[in-house]
Amino acid sequence: MSNMTEEKPHLVRQAIQLPAGASVVVIGAGVTGLSAAWWLARDGVDVVVIDKGIVGAEASSRNGGGATHYQSPLFLEEQRLWPMMDDLLGYPTEYRPDRIIFATNPIHLRSYARIAENIRNLGFKVTDLDSKVVRELVPLAGRDNLGGIYVHTGGQANPQRTVQAYAWAAQDLGARIFQHMPALRIETAGGRAVSVVTPSGTIGCDHVVIAAGPQSEALARDVGLFMPLAAARAEMIVTEAVPLMKIGGVDGNGLYGRQTLRGNLAYGGGWHEWLPEQPLTGKVSRPSTPTVQHLALRVAQLFPGAAHLRVIRAWAGIVENTPDGRPVLDRPTGPGNVTVASMSGVGFGLSPAVGHALRDLVTEGRCTFTDIDKLCLSRFATLRPDWRSEKGWFTPATVTA
Ligand SMILES: Cc1cc2nc3c(=O)[nH]c(=O)nc-3n(C[C@H](O)[C@H](O)[C@H](O)COP(=O)(O)OP(=O)(O)OC[C@H]3O[C@@H](n4cnc5c(N)ncnc54)[C@H](O)[C@@H]3O)c2cc1C
Fold first, then answer.
1. How far is the CA of 55 from the centre of ligand 1 (A)?
2. 46 SS3 class
3. 346 vs 327: CA distance, rounded Å
4. Is any atom of ligand 1 closer than 6 Å to the C-beta of 36?
5. How far is Cα 206 from Cα 278, in angstroms, rounded to an integer?
6. Mutation test of ligand 1: which of 63, 216, 236, 258 has the most ligand atoms closer than 8 Å to its C-beta?
7. What's the confidence (pLDDT) of residue 3?
8. Residues of the chain with pLDDT under 50
9. What residue spans define the domains of the chain?
């Protein structure tokens, strides 16, 4: 009888050869960790990325793809970089510029006027749209829409394509990425991080970047840092395809999302289901039917011309929320050689700029292109231990207990 493993060598399980050391170990191969690795590799830094699963399999590939974060100190860099990303990475992200936000009720219309004012104050063009022009630009909109705004900046990209592009681009520059390689803990000596322990061995390093999404809190604890995060599940739906609209990023009715290049409408927004602290390894979250139904209803309200479309896919992703909703990007003085990044739900769009900031923090000790002081970890130093219940962010387990 023939030996099956000899006939099919691809079935032989190879032992993974982890390097004994690297200058920088990045924990987490989402957009944050991958962008950081790419920026570091561009500088010739010897960087290793490890992920408990596969590249971008968590929030980074499950999001709305929006890239218009005008409230962030990284906004200008986000806007500068996105139009160049395909060229810089050498792989497609399917980035498409601009954004339309239109209203189906007067309260939303007033809030979109405030968004327009904020973006104009940052020096970008925003055009007010009446109901008729909305219909011309967004043929799926209803006749009773109340108008909206056209933001001549920002945009959206394909999250799956983008994580893959970061990973390939980082590898092209020498970064090494290890999948199915959870960080079990970070070891310290003399108050500094010295290595990252995985099931396949320990990687010594000069610097650790913690970019592990909701699991960052547990890893930061290893090096004496308090990084308060609350995980929440959010869902998205995808409809059948319709002819391409002029602008792929159209928001409203509490929804965010995009039209894919194939024509599908991919939308999320609304209810978040609060979850307990996430384990360092664990199962992928599934969509919940009531939320998916509600999303489908609101997509049909926003786009009456798409109300007949069937929902062909739905998924859930875990959002990493900080207590004040702002990201954390910091290299705290103790331990000094650990940089932490958690994006609080805005990490996809900001990722090109975040990678730049992380590269700066690791190599220069400070962000060189904008002031990120308000993203520091120390702002939570006086947070009360029961902060989650103060905010009403209860998990199903705490509600039923
Ligand atoms: C439904 C949804 C819609 C969203 N829409 C948008 C949007 O339109 N625009 C926007 O900008 N943002 C959006 N976001 C938020 C955005 O997706 C996140 O902020 C961003 O992806 C965070 O990226 P990350 O790399 O920091 O974290 P993650 O994507 O969570 O990646 C962290 C990685 O760390 C790995 N990891 C965890 N623990 C360990 C461990 N112990 N060892 C090794 N690896 C580990 C995980 O496997 C994962 O791959 C949305 C999120 C969701 C869920």
1. 11
2. coil
3. 8
4. no
5. 27
6. 63
7. 44
8. 1-11
9. 19-66+160-228+324-400, 96-156+230-321
What whole-number distance in Å separates Cα of residue 13 and Cα of residue 174? 24
66 lines ligand 1 (CB under 6 A): yes
Residue-wise pLDDT for 288-315, tens only, equals: 888 898 999 999 999 999 999 999 999 9
Question: Rounded distance, CA 82 to CA 336, Å?
Answer: 31
**What's the CATH superfamily of 19-66+160-228+324-400?**
FAD/NAD(P)-binding domain (3.50.50.60)
What is the C-alpha to C-alpha distance for residues 96 and 371, in angstroms, rounded to an integer?
28
So what's the pLDDT on residue 400?
A: 55
DSSP 27: E
CA of 346 from ligand 1 middle (Å) equals 9
**Taking each helix axis from N to C terminus, what angle separates 159-172 and 31-42, rounded to the nearest 10 degrees?**
30
The model's pLDDT over 67-76, given as tens digits with 9 standing for 90+, comes to: 999 999 999 9
Ligand 1, residue 257: give the atom nearest the CA: 8
* Distance between Cα 68 and ligand 1 center (Å): 17
Distance of CA 118 to the CA centre of its chain: 23
Q: Is the CB of 228 under 6 A from ligand 1?
A: no
Distance 209 CA to ligand 1 centre (A): 15
Q: What is the pLDDT of residue 91?
A: 98
User: What is residue 284's predicted lDDT score, i.e. its pLDDT?
Assistant: 59
Q: What pLDDT sits at residue 2? A: 40
pLDDT of residue 347: 98
Structural domain 96-156+230-321, CATH architecture: 2-Layer Sandwich (3.30)
